[in-house]
Specification:
The protein has a single domain, classed as Rossmann fold (3-Layer(aba) Sandwich). The longest helix has 16 residues. The protein is built from 14 helices and nine strands. The chain has a seven-stranded mixed sheet with strand order 5-6-4-7-3-8-9, sandwiched between helices. By secondary structure, the protein is α/β, with parallel strands linked by helices. The radius of gyration is 19 Å and the shape is globular.
């Protein structure tokens, strides 16, 4: 039991300690053996370090999708990608949002780009290698985006097999990578359907806040339709709780409801709210580079291990 500033008392949150008021994975993971539950209220497994890679490719394609904006899709794409690259995987990031936030978050000015994913989608003479950019993280490359992509949704309407255009243009790159993460725009329009159609899996970043929870049912309905009509192999990799603050009753209740509804589909790893993420974005670096020893960096490294543990046939 904890006494609050107003003199009242409240029950301690699972996974939290005086040294870990956020219920952060960095501490919770180390105490699993003693029976302490993680922030999701479930016993947290210890995820092993992935073995060293002896070969690369073909890539597993994962779409980061949520039609609500500001839930951590871009932050997760950047930092999960960087954490996977630290594990020895070759990572391809696809900025599939006209706002170009993924590109900005990696220190690239979208307005200065001559070629982007838009040109790759619309202009048949453009090759993926012409658009591909190296990032500051070894083993992680980027297909950037800018505001031009907003026109693609209209231009693709008349295309034959319009839902499969993205899959067609990135296909030549996949043999060179182990994972491809697609950062989708906050909508369920044609661009997002393209990402779902070419993906093997979906990760749903979900802010621990009521309005973010409301839209999950619609998103799941869209994923089901894509599975039935366009991509029978599409799997839900998991729901990722982001911007979590164990000190607020609302955040704890939302996380509990998500776990109640989706059970094992919810990742054990929880991403806490911290100012280090926006600081890293301003610096144009992943949190694993900007502040390698931070709890946020540790959380994304743990998420990388959990994601790899969930993949059924990850090659060594």
């Amino acid at each position: 039991m904890t006494v609050t500033t107003d003199g009242s008392s409240r029950r301690a949150t699972p996974g939290t300690t005086p040294d870990n008021p956020w219920g952060d994975s960095k501490t919770a993971a180390s105490t699993t053996a003693s029976g302490i539950l993680g922030p999701t209220g479930r016993p947290r497994p210890v995820f092993p370090e992935p073995p060293a890679r002896t070969s690369h490719g073909p890539a597993r394609v994962v779409a980061m999708v949520n039609q609500k904006g500001g839930v951590g899709k871009t932050t997760t794409t950047i930092n999960l990608g960087a954490a996977l690259a630290e594990c020895g995987l070759r990572v391809l990031l696809v900025d599939f949002d006209p706002q170009g936030a993924l590109s900005v978050g990696l220190g690239i000015n979208p307005l200065q780009l001559d070629l982007t994913i838009y040109n790759l989608l619309i202009e048949r003479g453009v090759s993926p290698d012409e658009v591909l950019l190296k990032t500051s993280v070894e083993g992680m490359d980027l297909l950037p985006s800018n505001i031009d992509l907003s026109a693609a949704e209209v231009q693709l309407v008349t295309e034959v097999a319009r839902e499969q255009v993205l899959g067609r243009v990135i296909k030549p790159l996949l043999p060179d990578y182990d994972v491809c993460l697609i950062d989708c725009q906050p909508s369920l329009g044609l661009l997002t359907i393209n990402a779902l159609t070419c993906a093997h899996g979906v990760i749903v970043p979900l802010e621990c806040e009521f309005f973010a929870l409301r839209g999950v049912a619609l998103l799941m309905d869209t994923i089901t339709k894509v599975q039935e009509r366009l991509n029978a192999d599409l799997e839900i990799e998991g729901l990722l709780a982001t911007m979590y603050d164990a000190r607020t009753l609302h955040g704890r209740e939302v996380l509990a409801r998500v776990v109640e509804a989706f059970d094992e589909k919810v990742f054990h790893t929880v991403i806490n709210r911290t100012v280090r993420f926006p600081d890293a974005t301003v610096a144009g670096e992943p949190i694993t580079v900007f502040d390698s020893s931070s709890l946020g960096a540790s959380a994304y490294r743990e998420l990388a291990r959990e994601v790899l543990a969930r993949w059924p046939d990850t090659p060594a």
